[in-house]
Amino acid sequence: MMQGRVNNTHNPIPGVKCVVNTCVYHDQHDHCNAQAIEIQPRNAKNTQDTDCATFTPNNM
Questions:
Q1: Region of 22 on the Ramachandran plot (φ > 0 left; ψ -120 to 50 alpha; else beta)
Q2: For residue 49, with 0-12 CB atoms within 10 Å meaning exposed, 13-18 middle and 19 or more buried, which class applies?
Q3: Structure pTM?
Q4: Which of 3, 17, 11, 9 lies closest to 54 in space, CA to CA?
Q5: 59 — pLDDT class (breaks 50, 70, 90)
Q6: Rounded to whole angstroms, what are the CA distances from 60 to 4, 24, 38, 53?
């Protein structure tokens, strides 16, 4: 599990689309600018079981 907040590189991760506009790593083009991402849990069976552990609210 990721410990603490990761750096915001302000450069999109190639091939990663993120439309969660309440995340600090989201950019206006629906890209993720986190240094790294972590998706959980290990034994997910479908999309609804997954969670982006990197999500950090941007406190709009």
A1: alpha
A2: exposed
A3: 0.83
A4: 3
A5: confident
A6: 20, 9, 23, 19
Residue 59 included in any domain: no
State pLDDT tens for residues 17-49: 999 999 999 999 999 999 999 999 999 999 999
> Is 60 domain-assigned?
no
The first and second tokens of residue 22, run together, are: 């309440």
Q: Where are the alpha helices (DSSP H) in 1-60?
A: none
CB 26 within 8 A of CB 18: yes
Query: How many residues belong to the chain?
Result: 60
pLDDT of residue 60: 61
Q: Is 34 a domain residue?
A: yes
